[in-house]
Amino acid sequence: MDWNWLATFASTLYLLAVAGAFAGELSAPGVPTVAVAVLAAVVAWLAADWLDRTGYERLGADPDGATSFFWLLVLYLPYGLLPTLAALDRLLGLPAALVLPAAVSALTPVAAWLAFYGGLDRLGLDGGDFERLVGGWLAVAAVGFAAATALGLTLSRTEVVAGFLLAQAVGVALAARSAGDREGDGNGGDAARTHNA
């Protein structure tokens, strides 16, 4: 099985689904949802086929990064940067329907650079670093929530935003330390790219 093609297809379909939801096409009156889903699948199939054949080469992208791009876009970046996204949501007050499209729009170029243009290798990152990133901010958020609940605190919006950003900073610090330790052991570079990220 061609895993690069499959990952390209899945990523394209995911982006189309987010874009379609943002544009309101999936709920447009008079347009059957099944028809929209089939059309999106066909477009994703054609796009994946073009990218796999000549598209990546024309774009100067590494086709081997397709699987990494999928995991970065769907899992690692959204969950890894969730505290920052939550803080921005608190500050900007985005409508619920815009949160996912806005996040995906912001993260797609980052995921593309990391996966297709050597970003993971340059930064010495792998899937374990993103897991530590998520674990770090989850631990801080859990402790903060437990403390606020136990003490009966009512936090202002500014304090909640500051808490989110603190949790994010701890997660980033743990991920950076993990990557730095691996570089110090001489296991960076080629080991940075895994089948997960």
Describe this structure in words.
With 197 residues, this protein is an all-alpha fold. It has 2 domains: 1-60, no CATH class; 64-197, no CATH class. It is built from 8 helices and no strands. It has helices at 3-23, 33-58, 66-80, 82-92, 96-116, 119-123, 127-151, 157-184. Helix 1 (3-23) runs antiparallel to helix 5 (96-116) and helix 7 packs antiparallel against helix 8. The chain is flat, with a radius of gyration of 19 Å. The two termini are 19 Å apart.
Number of strands: 0
Number of domains: 2
H/E element string?
HHHHHHHH
Oligomeric grouping of the chains? single chain
Task: Report on the biggest sheet.
Answer: none
Set out the fold topology.
Elements: H1 3-23, H2 33-58, H3 66-80, H4 82-92, H5 96-116, H6 119-123, H7 127-151, H8 157-184
Quickly list its features:
77% helix; disordered C terminus; 197 residues; mainly alpha; 8 helices; 2 domains
In a few lines, what is going on in this structure?
The protein contains eight helices and no strands. With 197 residues, the protein is mainly α.
